[in-house]
């Protein structure tokens, strides 16, 4: 965890609050969800803002349903839990629940930072970039570097379905590889947050430059990327 972002707030009640990048993204996302209401679009196919916030709540507060987020054979159960959660809680209540880390993440701020920073960043951008006239944010230098380190470490996983080799170039410094190890390559250049969105399957909403064979670029843009 970046020490420059670990701020300890001691409230009059004696409660200690840790402010990390994950908490910052969580707060900004929930503020935006409150402003937009339950029916705004997101970049997650078929999901409105109410679906997205329900996903966040289920992911953190229903450990029985978490495996279905990643494992297709269990996805039906997870979807049913999410439907019941959405039907049983008013939208403002769901946003309130999402504002604070749930389950083990609420007890261990360092784990919340390690596991949820990228998840919350991407979902924050899923909401931001589905709205008209969005523009990329200027990220704090330490968050930009943290995102790049995670992208570099996870590129092979996120780009495992890429149809061609991928060379990621971070503006500001840094290169990493993903996709097939041999054959044609496409070079993707952008800031760390944009490279993350690209690798998470949001290619059409990532502000990046692509260099390579036009056919390879087209196939990479349409590929199913992400974890």
From TrEMBL:
<dbReference type="InterPro" id="IPR017517">
    <property type="entry name" value="Maleyloyr_isom"/>
</dbReference>
<feature type="domain" description="Mycothiol-dependent maleylpyruvate isomerase metal-binding">
    <location>
        <begin position="22"/>
        <end position="150"/>
    </location>
</feature>
<dbReference type="Pfam" id="PF11716">
    <property type="entry name" value="MDMPI_N"/>
</dbReference>
<dbReference type="GO" id="GO:0046872">
    <property type="term" value="F:metal ion binding"/>
</dbReference>
<protein>
    <submittedName>
        <fullName>TIGR03085 family protein</fullName>
    </submittedName>
</protein>
<dbReference type="InterPro" id="IPR034660">
    <property type="entry name" value="DinB/YfiT-like"/>
</dbReference>
<dbReference type="InterPro" id="IPR024344">
    <property type="entry name" value="MDMPI_metal-binding"/>
</dbReference>
<dbReference type="InterPro" id="IPR017519">
    <property type="entry name" value="CHP03085"/>
</dbReference>
